């Protein structure tokens, strides 16, 4: 699968250089995305049990150590786009642990 916005994940790695657990999780996520051609949510969940579907258009949050990363997975297009990355505190401040707030943010940022 083609990963669009990989530089955002690389930036998160650089920012957290001393956090070996997080950098390993980021590397694993990149490999999992690039090496798979998921055709369904079930296939994705088999590979990445930390994937949390937050919108029916294929938006998922992944838990990477103590960070949350939103990635759009387009099953038909064979692409995954990094939409948002941040730590859990930033996630709670922006998205309020609420799918309605996530949907509004996606609309406001022209993702849906």
Helical proportion?
40-55%
Assess the beta-strand content as a share of residues: 25-35%
| Largest sheet entry | 5 strands, mixed
Q: Give average pLDDT, whole number.
A: 89
Rg to the nearest angstrom?
13 Å
How many β-strand stretches? 5
Distance between the termini: 21 Å
Helix/strand-derived class? alpha+beta
Quickly count the helices. Answer: 5
SSE topology string: EHHHEEEEHH
How would you describe the overall organization of this protein?
- The chain is α+β, with helices and mostly antiparallel strands and 112 residues long.
- It has helices spanning 6-15, 20-35, 41-47, 88-95, 99-108, and strands at 2-4, 51-55, 59-64, 67-74, 79-87.
- Helix 1 packs antiparallel against helix 2.
Topology:
Elements: E1 2-4, H1 6-15, H2 20-35, H3 41-47, E2 51-55, E3 59-64, E4 67-74, E5 79-87, H4 88-95, H5 99-108
Parallel strand pairs: 1-5
Antiparallel strand pairs: 2-3, 3-4, 4-5
List keywords for this structure.
alpha+beta; 5-stranded mixed sheet; 5 helices
Outline:
The chain is α+β, with helices and mostly antiparallel strands. Helices cover 46% and strands 28% of the residues. The two termini are 21 Å apart.
